[in-house]
Hints:
Layout: E1 4-5, E2 14-17, H1 23-34, E3 40-43, H2 49-60, E4 64-67, E5 75-78, E6 83-88, H3 93-104, E7 107-113, H4 124-132, E8 136-138, E9 144-149, E10 155-159, H5 166-175, E11 182-186, H6 194-206, E12 212-215, E13 221-226, E14 236-237, H7 242-255, E15 258-261, H8 275-281, E16 285-288, E17 294-297, E18 306-308, H9 316-323, E19 329-333, H10 345-355, E20 359-363, E21 366-370, E22 381-382, H11 388-398, E23 405-406, H12 419-428, E24 435-437
Parallel strand pairs: 2-15, 3-14, 6-7, 10-11, 18-19, 22-23
Antiparallel strand pairs: 1-23, 2-24, 3-5, 4-5, 7-9, 8-9, 11-13, 12-13, 15-17, 16-17, 19-21, 20-21
Main location: cytoplasm
Family: Belongs to the EPSP synthase family.
Pfam families: EPSP_synthase
Amino acid sequence: MTAWPAPPASxxxxxxxxxxxxxxxxxxxxxxxxxxxxPSRITGTLRSRDTDLMLDALAALGTGIAYSATDPTEVTVxxxxxxxxxxxxxxxxxxxxxxxxxxxxxxxRVRFDGDPQARTRPMGIVLDALRxxxxxxxxxxxxxxxxxxxAVDGGPVTVDASASSQFVSGLLLSAARFTAGAQITHAGRxxxxxxxxxxxxxxxxxxxxxxxxxxxxxGAVTSWSVSPGPIRAVDWAIEPDLSNAAAFLAAAAxxxxxxxxxxxPDQTTQPGAQIVSILEALGCRTGRSGDGLLTVTGPxxxxxxxxxxxxxxxxxxxxxxxxxxxxxxxxxxxIAHLRGHETDRLxxxxxxxxxxxxxxxxxxxxxxxxxxxxxxxxxxxxxxxxDHRMATAGAALGLVVAGTAIExxxxxxxxxxxxxxxxxxMVDGAAGPGASAR
Length: 438
Ligand SMILES: O=C(O)C1=C[C@@H](OP(=O)(O)O)[C@@H](O)[C@H](O)C1
Ligand SMILES: C=C(OP(=O)(O)O)C(=O)O
């Protein structure tokens, strides 16, 4: 595979970028639809590797999946009795953490596996929790097998979700279908990516499943309780993916240009929405018009930031790329759990930023990055580590560091159907599916 020469920006970019649907909302909607009382129609479905693997997995388990003949983002999901299957999780956290509970509700043997890198992602906690709730499972990491009996007892369970919020979301999504529901208590260091649990709770509420929560002394939610009951069928309209939007908005920030994203939701549980305040802290101007058009304009020089990214860890590669060229030393903290993401993102970012001549060091729970002017950095081949967000972060630096090439840019297909074409269209106005230069 030859590396993709990241297009350099000849000046400030000026573009409108139309983003496909959210990975996190799509995969939650699909799971809820498969467990619902009747058929659900999903529009704006993200069609990418992570979501297509979810569609394939649910179909393999017996769920009816029908695609519109005219719109690939419109899918009708018809629940059916679930049976044994082979499930390929790829590298998707949302599959490996959301589907074991669904598999335990199936009748039959459900074998899970995924990419080589997926086998090292933390899984034991969610599998142990399911065993406590009555499921029979062989294994503690991918590959593992769930011996579904058609029912899960449910009840109280304590988990340490400090390595991933997905442990809690994965139990919550199926909990209403457990015989006794589930009462989940977190015990351990703080749970990262809390907005993603709020997204799960919010979507369950829309599907008629209330989640009762309780907080600890610091005010952090540490327990979630779901009573047994039906999951309502819902016609879901998926919002644009704001975490993927962040990569494109970074192009405005890093080139001193302007990028506009239509359909920016007014209210959302997507943590990616926080990129707006992060870009403001870096020195960008932002604005939102009444029709939902978000505009971000970059400054002549970005300024360093000191940010706790624990709630929005998936934005880290994008933010780290911007800090690499910001004026001053930035500290990004609260993100030790990124060592268990698609790759060890703290190590990967440190290695690749250093490769370009930047200064980045790892701390216990984050990164310290001393910015350089782009002219003081040197183009090189930026490695992706099969991580879509590493690839897009490298592309952002490639706008201003001539000679940057991205190894395995195809890995962006995990959550973006056609990133290279969209990115190129944003930079130079060539025809692309979702981006255009103004
Ligand atoms: O539930 C979800 O959709 C996600 C939760 C988060 O995982 P972690 O809590 O493991 O960071 C996030 O990083 C991931 O991209 C998507
Ligand atoms: C951590 C991420 O993905 P996953 O859903 O595979 O955990 C991500 O998309 O940044």
